[in-house]
């Protein structure tokens, strides 16, 4: 690179950076999702679960989990040369929800991860983004051994609006997660365009 130009003679591309939240219940796979796609070593704020937290932290269904996010997870993925996503994983436990307002500041959209064995755990995240008009996609994390349900049944259980995308995903798989994130960006852009149109008409 010389004088701000690449070797091919093209000016360097200044990428657009977008902020995406990853939310959902305790143990649903948020930290795993961020780690699966991040091109940098993800920043994690995990602490060991303790006996003191046992009465508060419901580990049914995720008995093998021994750590929890107490502030956020952070990762970055370049989708295209001109598009970079910054991922912020929110803490799943109710006592850390005060962090959500800080983390959601300036977010383009969100992924709400859901586990069909514990769907009620993502109700709070769905409500949060609906109330704040932050566009979101629901990603059903397909855990091994969990039952598969028709999309419409999951939609009804979560009381989702028809325009909220719902996709199956594997939070451990980079390609699967990348598709979910592309879906968030597309949904958020369509949502923004729709709102602009409603303002001008």
UniProtKB/TrEMBL annotation:
<dbReference type="InterPro" id="IPR004130">
    <property type="entry name" value="Gpn"/>
</dbReference>
<keyword id="KW-0675">Receptor</keyword>
<comment type="similarity">
    <text>Belongs to the GPN-loop GTPase family.</text>
</comment>
<dbReference type="Pfam" id="PF03029">
    <property type="entry name" value="ATP_bind_1"/>
</dbReference>
<protein>
    <submittedName>
        <fullName>Signal recognition particle receptor subunit beta</fullName>
    </submittedName>
</protein>
<dbReference type="InterPro" id="IPR052705">
    <property type="entry name" value="Gliding_Motility_GTPase"/>
</dbReference>
<dbReference type="InterPro" id="IPR027417">
    <property type="entry name" value="P-loop_NTPase"/>
</dbReference>
<keyword id="KW-0547">Nucleotide-binding</keyword>
<keyword id="KW-0342">GTP-binding</keyword>
<keyword id="KW-0378">Hydrolase</keyword>
């Amino acid at each position: 690179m010389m004088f701000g130009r690449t070797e091919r003679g093209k000016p360097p591309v200044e990428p657009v950076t977008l902020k995406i939240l990853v939310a959902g219940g305790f143990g649903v796979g948020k930290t795993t999702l961020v780690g699966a796609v991040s091109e940098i070593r993800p920043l994690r704020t995990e602490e060991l679960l303790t006996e003191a937290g046992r009465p508060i932290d419901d580990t049914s269904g995720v008995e093998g989990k021994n750590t929890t996010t107490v502030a956020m997870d952070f990762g970055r993925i370049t989708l295209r040369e001109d598009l970079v996503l910054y991922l912020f994983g929110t803490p799943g436990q109710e006592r850390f929800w005060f962090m959500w307002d800080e983390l959601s500041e300036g977010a383009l959209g969100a992924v709400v991860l859901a586990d069909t064995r514990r769907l009620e755990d993502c109700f709070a995240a769905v409500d949060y983004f609906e109330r704040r008009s932050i566009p979101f996609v629901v990603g059903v994390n397909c855990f091994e051994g969990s039952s598969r349900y028709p999309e419409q049944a999951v939609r009804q259980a979560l009381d989702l609006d028809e325009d909220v995308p719902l996709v199956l995903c594997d939070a451990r798989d980079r390609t699967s997660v990348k598709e979910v994130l592309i879906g968030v960006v597309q949904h958020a852009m369509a949502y923004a365009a729709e709102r602009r149109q409603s303002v001008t008409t």
